[in-house]
Design brief:
Layout: H1 3-18, H2 24-44, H3 51-77, H4 82-91, H5 97-106, E1 108-112, E2 117-119, E3 127-133, E4 136-140, E5 143-148, E6 153-154, H6 156-161, E7 168-171, E8 175-181, H7 182-191, H8 193-218
Helix pairs in contact: 1-2, 2-3, 7-8
């Protein structure tokens, strides 16, 4: 395989990789690199440059640079306090800062003292929460089944299934939560589905980890 053929194949490999990247800035950077490889390939593969694919790739590069500039400029305008920055690095790095800012705009912060009930078992659940700091106990019929700590969701099963709360949640220590209304998140889904997909993926990973730990306990 010649160098030019390798460059041509690399262009398609980079396009494939871009489909697996969640961060929009990295996705566009990969797309630009793929277009550059495609330009080199189409300039050298024939006896004379293939101007139609070269021209289209130049257009795609310009379009991607435009959107990359918007993302970088938008990120520079966002100012996060220490708590928001720590939460971002703890749980939301798959989102770009503009997406994260949209989540923060919908959220409220709540603090619970030890022993306070956060969620009541078998009751309708209209909020999704994440623990910023502290710890909570998960109780089913007053029996402790699990505990959740920093960076973990509360109410994710209700959010994913639209069902009542499957357990009682009680603060074990002083606990700070970031809280979203489920309706607000579902309304946001229509405008920014990739953002909600990232949230749902994080929730699914948490549920998988809980189930795996329960299975290990049974062994």
């Amino acid at each position: 395989m010649s160098i030019i053929q390798i460059v041509g194949n690399l262009a398609f490999v980079l396009v494939a990789c871009s489909f697996m990247v969640k961060d929009m800035l990295w996705l566009r950077a990969l797309s630009v690199t793929a277009s550059l490889c495609s330009i080199v390939y189409n300039a050298k593969i024939a006896t004379s440059p293939l101007m139609v694919p070269i021209s289209w790739n130049l257009f795609f590069i310009a379009l991607n640079f435009y959107h990359m500039g918007r993302i970088i400029y938008g990120n520079r305008k966002i100012r996060l306090n220490d708590k928001e920055q720590e939460l971002y690095h703890m749980s939301f790095q798959t989102l770009n800062l503009q997406e994260y800012a949209k989540l923060l705009a919908l959220a409220k912060w709540k603090t619970f003292k030890p022993g306070e009930v956060i969620v009541t078992e078998n009751q309708p659940m209209d909020e999704l929460m994440m623990i910023y700091s502290g710890s909570v106990d998960i109780l089913v019929k007053e029996r402790k089944m699990n505990e959740l700590k920093d960076g973990q969701f509360i109410g994710e099963m209700s959010f994913l299934s639209d069902k009542n709360a499957s357990a009682k949640v009680v603060a074990a220590f002083d606990t700070d939560l970031i809280v979203w209304k489920q309706k607000d998140l579902k309304d946001l889904k229509a405008k920014n589905p990739s953002l909600i997909f990232s949230l749902q993926s994080a929730m699914a990973r948490q549920l998988t980890g809980i189930l795996a730990s329960k299975n290990l306990e049974k062994l």
